[in-house]
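tool_call predict_complex ligand=manganese (II) ion
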Amino acid sequence: MSTPLELWVEEVSRITRPKQIVWCDGSGREREQMVETLLAEGRTFRLNEQSYPGCILNRSDPSDVARTEQLTFICTRRREDAGPTNNWMAPAEAKDKVGKLFAGAMAGRTMYVVPYLMGPAGSPFSRAGVEVTDSPYVVASMGIMARIGSAALDQIGAGRDFVPGLHSLGDLSPDRRFILHFPEEKLIWSVGSGYGGNALLGKKCFALRIASWMAREQGWLAEHMLILGLEDPSGKITYMAAAFPSACGKTNLAMMVSALESSGYRVWTVGDDIAWLHPGPDGYLHAVNPEAGFFGVAPGTNPQTNPNVMQALRQNSIFTNVGMTPSREPWWEGNGSPPPAGLLDWQGRTFSSANGPAAHPNSRFTVPAGQLPSISPHWEDPAGVPISAIIFGGRRARVAPLVFESMNWQHGVFIAATMASETTAAQTGAVGVTRRDPMAMLPFCGYHMGDYFRHWLEMGRSVPHPPKIFRVNWFRRGADGKFLWPGFGENVRVLKWILERVQGGDHATETPIGLVPTPDALTLDGLNISRGAVEELLSVDPDDWRREAEETKTFFAQFGDRLPAELTQEHAALVKRLGMSASAR
Ligand code: GTP
Ligand code: SPV
Ligand code: MN
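tool_result ok
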């Protein structure tokens, strides 16, 4: 008797017609075979065996360098269940149209079957998936980003409780690229891209889009969040989760070397991109990191901004679309050293600034989490870590202050739902365009965003000790166009204020948008920043926020009657606090 998994693998092999099928177990030998296969394909290189042992550099197709949101679909039976913020295709139409692209797609190639577990082995919160792919790069990357092989097969056994994901590189043309999610049957289809979130199906496709749907059904949350522990001078560790849009600072915050380490504040990393949050028996929300590695933005990463990851990426790591020096070391803009003579850019050309940067702006490193010096001893705790604060942040050159706190959970959901951020290179399209990105989940919520807001409101009501909710912005700029806040390891100063608020400290002033630190509440010793800059960072300009409130009204309108009444009430209360006229409401 075949198991459901074997039957599904047979079914997809009948469609894709590979020359052979390889079941992956995640062993070192298998990884070495993937590397050999990649080297033979000519777009992958072994890095310097002395300085970067076990590391490779991969150059993707130049048209396949970031997530493609316009080619990403939620395929629910009813269009309205995908909601106005998602692309939608009817399941039957999707299968017919994209099924044609899978037909014979693996002819003459190997089909790899990658069973994977999202979440720590033995955790009641962990979920299994199986990715079938014709890309050895995907196999090697999944081997770092998830627990693959027996950890997953043990959980799946002869059952059907796994999320199947079918992936093929196809011809890599964006004209024939589709990333499809069928949340009602918990199925993923992806064709035409080998890059990151389009192709490593455990990550955004499963752990966010499909998992967010499961989470609503089952009473938990699947979020685009880092998880960190802040140790205070008493040795107590308080856990926080933070949602920022892509390339807006999660990896760097989660791994920071604290500027206040000498006074006893230290940061421990639990996760850098995704959090699954479940109500725990102690009345707190508990977070697990479903991933096992970090797929982080390379440019800007250096020994000052992120010393922890600079150490971790020295071995067993994959570099994608970075430059390569003549001594076969990876290189990117902002890595702390000047471009050496003979540098090759991400497309393998001799570096010339006329061709643009040496590393693609969305170039990335893929690093096993266990290698990080700051990895938390609890990062694989099956029960997760209890969360005391949730932080939402965006990239805003103006308007948004360095930090503010919500008045309560309902108001917290409102300030998360109305967050906006400037777009980055993590997705294709224009960079620097301000867009609403509720909870940093705009590209990742697998269902109607109005229902998602309602689920968030319900979660706060059902948990006896809901986390306090904050907003931050490391990216505010002064009149000279420069960042007002130094960021990175200095962000611990903001985390310290958040910790004090969690512990009941009262150094906060009420403004129309929420509670901001009093001018002397932030610990700034040892930091060279002017009083004026701090005041500017914390300032809340009523005119700016009246404009935000106007935009929020338009943004909310698209959700129709699925927008929870609580958020309409929060908007009305904000409008009132801002002293806006009735017509502006
Ligand atoms: P995804 O992996 O795409 O979800 O992104 P992420 O949120 O983990 O972003 P990441 O930490 O990789 O940061 C992306 C970019 O923002 C990098 O170029 C960083 O150098 C920059 N950055 C991160 N933190 C800060 C900060 O505190 N201040 C400033 N000015 N830049 C930052
Ligand atoms: C993001 O874009 O938010 C990422 C990278 O974390 S990717 O996996 O490519 O989506
Ligand atoms: Mn991300």
